[in-house]
C-alpha cells in the first residue's frame, strides 16, 4: 500500500559514452528522463548548455516506422491463419533479438516489396474506379448506334445531350417540329432524372435548334476522345476491368506470399521503435561541447542498480530528495492481490505524492460490493473461470490484464454472495432441474433470500456503506496525523465519527441490544459531538459570529453522510435486479410443456442468462466503481498525479526478456 | 375470473412500471446516435461505445422487474387474479409510480449523459471509466426508485 518513493537523479558524463550509457539505462528501464525545457529559459543555464537532440533523425525513423506499420497492417489483412483471441507480445530473448537483427537485410527487402505491392494495388484501385465511372457515363447511351466520334456529316450536324425529366417531351417535339421539319429527334433512354436524346439537323440550322433546346434545359454531352459506338466502348472498358482484376489478384497473391514474414517484420518494427526512442530521448537532455546532462527521477529502491552502471561509465551523478512543491511522478506498488486494483485507481486519477495510495483500502470493498450487486454463483463462476482461463492462456499486460484480475476477484466474491443468497443462476438451476429432469435440488440460501427479506439485506448494505465511509474518513484522519495535524484529525474526523455513531445508537440502540443504555449513551454522544462541531468547524473564520455560524452550518453536513449511506442501497437493489430477472427467465422458460417446452427452457436459459450476465456484470462494475470514486474517495482522496514514465523499451509486438 | 376495479388498477400499476422502457428506448437511442457519429471516424470504438449505450437501458429492465413482481403477487402469471379491493389496486398503482416516472425521466437524461460520454471517448478513449461513472450518477436515482417501488409492492398485503 504505497506510493513508491522517488529520488531525483542528475547525471553528467562525457559525450563519448552517451550512446552506450543510454542503451544501458534503457535496458534497466527504471529512470525517467524529464524534459529540461525550463532550464533553457534560465540565462544562467543557457550560457553554458544547449538542448541536445536530433529531430531530423527522429523524423526519418518516424517515417520508416509508419511505413513498416503500414506493411504489417496490410499483411494482417491477408493473413488467413487463425488469429489469437487477444494480442499479446511475443517473448524473445536478447540473443534471439540480436541474431534476428543481424540478418534483417531480407526483412528490409520484404518491407520494400510489400510497400511496392501496396502502391500498385492502390494504383489499380484508382484505375478501376476511373473505368467504372466511364462505364457508368456511357451506360445510358448503349442504344445509340452512331459512333460517338462522328458529330457531323457533309451537310448535317449530330447533337447528343440530356434534358431534365420534368420537361414535357411531347411539347418539345412539337415545338421543334414547328421550328423546322428538317431535324430528327430520338429519345435514346430515360431515367428518373433526365432524358438522353440525339438530334440530327442541317448544319446551318444548328444554332437555332440549340437555342430552342436550351430553353428546355438541354445540356450537350460529348465523348471526344472515344471512337466507336457506346456499346463497343463499354465492352472495351469491361475488358480493361477484367484485366485489372487479374492484375489485382496477382498483386494480392504477392502480398499473401509474404505473410509468413510478418513476425520478422514486427520484430523489425520494434527494433526501429527502440532506436527511435534512443534518439528521441536526447531532446530531454542538455549538452555542452563535450559533455551531456541528464535530470530525472528514479525509485529509491533502484538506486543501486543504476549506480553500478554509472560508476562503470565514470559519470558524475547525484541522488537528491525531492523538494517541496516538485511534481514527483507516481508509481504504485502493491501486493499481488491489491495490485490489479491499481487499474481502478488509475481510471480515476493517480494520487499526488503528498496524498496516499487508496488502492489497498479500496480493493476488498470493490470486490465485496461487486459480489453483492451481482450475487449469483453461476455468474460468479463465469467471471472467475473466464478470467482465470484467459489469464492462464494469454500473457495479457497493462490495464486490460489488471482488469481481468479485478474481475477474477469480483467473480470469487460473486460466488460467495451467491451462496449466501442461495442464487444459482437465480432460481434457474433449481427450476431447471425440476422441470427438465424432475430432480429436486436441495439448494437453499446460507444467510438470507433477498427477495423474501429485502429489509435485512438493506440494513446490511447500509452497515457495509457505513464501514466503507468510516474507513475513508479514517484515511483522511491518518493523513492529517501523518502530516502533523493531530488537532485537525480529532476535530474534522473524530467528531464526525461521534456525530454519526451517536444518532445511530440513539435511534436504533434499543433494537441492537434491547434494554441496554445504548440510546441514552447515543443521545449524549450526539449532543456532545454536535456542540464540539459547532465550536470547531468554524475555526478558520476570524470573528466569533462567523465561527459560530459556520459551526452550526457544518451540522448540515450530516445530510451529506445520510445521502452517502443511502447510496449503498444499490447493493441490495442491483442484487435484486439480477435475482428477479433470473426468476422471470425461469418462468418464461417453463411456460410451454412437453419436449418443445424443455427445448424452449434451454434456449431461454442460455440466451436470457447471457444477456442478464452481460448487463448486470456491466452494472456491477460501474456501480462498484462509483461507490469507490464518489462515496469513498470523496472522503479523503485527491487525484492529479502524473504517472512515472521510465525510459524503457516501448515495444508493441515483442517482449525482450532480460537474461539474469 | 371476475373483473374488479382493484385488479384493473393493479395491472395498470404493472403497466405503468414497465413504461420506464419508454425512457430507456429514448436514452439508448440518444446514446446510439452519438455512437454512430464516433464509429464513422473509428470503427474500433464499437465495444466501448456499446457499453455506454447500454447504460440507459437498465431503467426499462427495472420497470419490467417491478411489473413482474406486481403480476406475480396478484396472480396474473399463474392465470387467476386474486380478488383485489379497489384500495389494494390503488396501492399497487401508487407503488409503481417511482419506477415508472423516475425510471422514464432518468433514462432520458442518462441517455444524454451517455451521449456526451460517447463523444468523450471519441476524443479520449482512455477515459471511458469516467464517462461511465458520470452516466451511473444519473442511474442512482433509478436504482433508488426501483428500491422504493420494490419495498412498497413487497409490503402490500393481499
Short description:
The complex is a heterodimer of chains A (660) and B (158). Chain A is 60% helix and 11% strand.
Approximately what portion of the residues of chain B adopt beta-strand conformation? under 5%
How many helices of chain B? 6
Largest sheet of chain B: none
Structural class of chain A: alpha+beta
Q: How would you describe the shape of chain B?
A: elongated
**Number of extended strands of chain B:** 0
- pLDDT < 50 runs, ≥5 residues of chain B: none
Structural class of chain B, please? mainly alpha
Question: Can you walk me through this structure?
Answer:
The complex is a heterodimer of chains A (660) and B (158). With 660 residues, chain A is of the alpha+beta class. Chain A has helices at 18-28, 43-46, 55-78, 94-102, 105-138, 169-179, 206-215, 230-257, 262-280, 303-312, 342-348, 359-374, 377-393, 398-421, 428-437, 454-482, 486-512, 518-536, 544-555, 557-567, 570-589, 594-636, and strands at 2-3, 6-14, 32-33, 50-51, 90-93, 156-164, 183-190, 194-202, 219-220, 286-287, 291-299, 316-320, 332-333, 350-351, 639-641, 654-657. In chain A, α1 (18-28) runs antiparallel to α10 (303-312), α3 packs antiparallel against α9 (262-280) and α12 (359-374) crosses α14. Chain A is extended. Chain B is an all-alpha fold and 158 residues long. Chain B is built from six helices and no strands. In chain B, α1 runs parallel beside α5 (86-123). The mean pLDDT of chain B is 91. Classes of the chains: A alpha+beta (660), B mainly alpha (158). At the A-B interface, α16, α21 and α22 of A face α4 and α6 of B.
Amino acid at each position: 500500500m504505497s506510493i513508491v518513493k522517488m529520488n531525483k537523479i542528475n547525471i553528467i558524463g562525457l559525450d563519448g559514452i552517451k550512446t552506450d550509457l543510454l542503451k544501458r539505462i534503457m535496458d534497466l528501464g527504471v529512470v525517467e528522463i524529464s524534459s529540461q525545457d525550463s532550464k533553457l529559459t534560465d540565462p544562467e543555464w543557457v550560457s553554458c548548455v544547449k538542448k541536445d537532440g536530433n529531430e531530423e533523425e527522429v523524423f526519418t525513423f518516424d517515417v520508416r516506422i509508419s511505413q513498416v506499420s503500414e506493411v504489417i497492417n496490410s499483411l494482417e489483412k491477408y493473413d488467413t491463419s487463425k488469429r489469437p483471441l487477444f494480442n499479446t507480445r511475443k517473448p524473445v530473448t536478447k540473443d534471439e533479438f540480436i541474431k534476428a537483427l543481424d540478418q534483417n537485410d531480407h526483412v528490409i527487402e520484404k518491407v520494400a516489396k510489400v510497400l511496392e505491392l501496396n502502391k500498385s494495388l492502390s494504383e489499380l484501385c484508382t484505375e478501376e474506379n476511373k473505368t467504372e465511372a466511364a462505364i457508368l457515363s456511357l451506360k445510358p447511351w448503349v442504344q445509340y448506334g452512331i459512333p460517338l466520334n462522328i458529330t457531323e456529316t457533309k451537310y448535317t450536324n449530330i447533337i447528343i445531350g440530356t434534358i431534365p425529366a420534368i420537361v414535357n417531351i411531347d411539347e418539345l417535339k412539337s415545338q421543334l417540329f414547328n421550328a423546322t421539319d428538317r431535324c430528327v429527334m430520338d429519345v435514346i433512354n430515360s431515367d428518373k432524372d433526365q432524358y438522353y436524346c440525339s438530334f440530327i439537323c442541317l448544319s446551318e440550322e444548328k444554332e437555332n435548334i440549340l437555342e430552342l433546346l436550351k430553353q428546355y434545359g438541354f445540356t450537350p454531352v460529348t465523348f471526344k476522345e472515344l471512337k466507336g459506338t457506346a456499346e463497343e466502348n463499354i465492352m472495351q472498358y469491361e475488358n480493361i476491368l477484367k484485366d485489372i482484376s487479374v492484375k489485382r489478384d496477382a498483386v494480392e497473391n504477392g502480398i499473401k506470399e509474404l505473410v509468413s514474414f510478418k513476425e520478422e517484420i514486427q520484430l523489425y518494427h520494434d527494433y526501429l521503435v527502440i532506436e527511435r526512442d534512443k534518439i528521441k530521448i536526447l531532446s530531454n537532455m542538455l549538452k555542452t561541447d563535450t559533455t551531456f546532462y541528464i535530470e530525472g527521477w528514479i525509485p529509491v529502491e533502484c538506486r543501486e542498480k543504476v549506480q553500478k552502471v554509472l560508476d562503470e561509465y565514470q559519470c558524475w551523478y547525484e541522488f537528491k530528495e525531492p523538494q517541496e512543491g516538485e511534481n514527483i511522478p507516481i508509481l504504485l506498488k502493491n501486493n499481488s492481490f491489491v495490485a490489479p486494483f491499481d487499474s481502478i485507481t488509475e481510471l480515476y486519477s493517480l494520487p499526488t505524492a503528498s496524498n496516499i495510495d487508496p488502492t489497498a483500502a479500496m480493493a476488498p470493498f470493490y470486490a465485496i460490493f461487486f459480489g453483492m450487486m451481482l450475487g449469483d454463483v453461476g455468474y460468479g463462476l463465469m467471471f472467475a473461470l473466464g478470467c482465470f482461463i484467459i489469464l492462464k492462456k494469454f500473457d495479457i499486460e497493462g490495464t486490460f490484464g489488471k482488469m481481468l484480475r479485478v474481475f477474477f476477484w469480483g467473480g470469487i466474491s460473486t460466488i460467495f454472495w451467491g451462496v449466501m443468497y442461495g442464487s444459482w443462476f437465480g432460481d434457474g438451476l433449481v427450476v431447471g432441474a425440476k422441470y427438465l429432469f424432475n430432480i429436486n435440488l436441495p439448494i437453499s440460501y446460507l444467510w438470507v433470500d433477498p427477495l423474501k427479506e429485502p429489509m435485512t439485506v438493506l440494513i446490511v448494505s447500509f452497515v457495509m456503506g457505513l464501514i466503507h465511509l468510516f474507513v475513508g474518513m479514517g484515511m483522511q484522519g491518518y493523513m492529517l496525523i501523518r502530516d502533523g495535524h493531530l488537532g485537525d484529525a480529532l476535530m474534522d474526523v473524530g467528531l464526525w465519527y461521534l456525530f454519526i455513531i451517536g444518532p445511530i445508537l440513539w435511534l436504533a440502540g434499543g433494537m441492537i441490544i434491547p434494554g441496554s443504555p445504548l440510546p441514552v449513551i447515543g443521545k449524549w454522544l450526539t449532543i456532545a459531538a454536535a456542540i464540539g462541531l459547532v465550536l470547531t468547524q468554524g475555526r478558520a473564520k476570524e470573528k466569533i459570529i462567523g465561527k459560530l455560524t459556520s459551526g452550526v452550518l457544518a451540522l448540515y453536513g450530516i445530510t451529506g453522510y445520510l445521502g452517502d449511506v443511502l447510496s449503498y442501497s444499490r447493493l441490495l437493489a442491483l442484487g435484486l435486479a439480477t435475482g428477479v430477472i433470473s426468476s422471470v427467465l425461469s418462468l418464461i422458460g417453463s411456460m410451454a410443456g412437453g419436449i418443445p417446452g424443455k427445448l424452449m427452457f434451454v434456449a431461454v436459459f442460455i440466451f436470457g442468462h447471457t444477456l442478464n450476465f452481460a448487463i448486470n456484470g456491466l452494472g456491477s462494475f460501474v456501480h462498484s466503481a462509483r461507490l469507490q470514486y464518489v462515496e469513498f474517495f470523496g472522503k479523503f482522496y485527491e487525484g492529479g498525479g502524473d504517472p512515472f514514465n521510465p525510459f524503457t523499451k516501448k515495444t508493441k509486438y515483442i517482449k525482450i526478456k532480460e537474461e539474469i | 375470473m371476475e373483473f374488479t376495479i382493484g385488479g384493473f388498477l393493479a395491472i395498470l400499476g404493472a403497466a405503468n412500471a414497465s413504461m420506464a422502457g419508454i425512457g430507456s428506448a429514448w436514452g439508448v437511442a440518444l446514446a446510439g446516435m452519438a455512437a454512430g457519429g464516433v464509429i464513422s471516424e473509428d470503427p474500433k470504438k464499437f465495444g466501448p461505445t456499446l457499453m455506454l449505450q447500454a447504460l440507459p437501458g437498465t431503467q426499462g429492465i427495472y420497470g419490467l422487474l417491478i411489473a413482474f413482481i406486481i403480476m406475480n403477487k396478484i396472480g396474473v402469471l399463474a392465470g387467476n387474479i386474486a380478488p383485489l379491493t379497489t384500495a389494494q389496486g390503488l396501492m399497487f398503482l401508487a407503488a409503481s409510480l417511482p419506477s415508472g416516472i423516475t425510471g422514464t425521466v432518468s433514462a432520458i437524461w442518462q441517455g444524454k449523459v451517455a451521449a456526451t460520454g460517447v463523444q468523450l471517448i471519441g476524443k479520449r478513449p482512455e477515459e471511458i471509466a469516467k464517462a461511465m461513472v458520470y452516466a451511473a450518477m444519473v442511474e442512482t436515482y433509478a436504482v433508488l426508485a426501483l428500491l422504493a417501488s420494490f419495498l412498497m409492492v413487497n409490503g402490500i398485503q393481499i
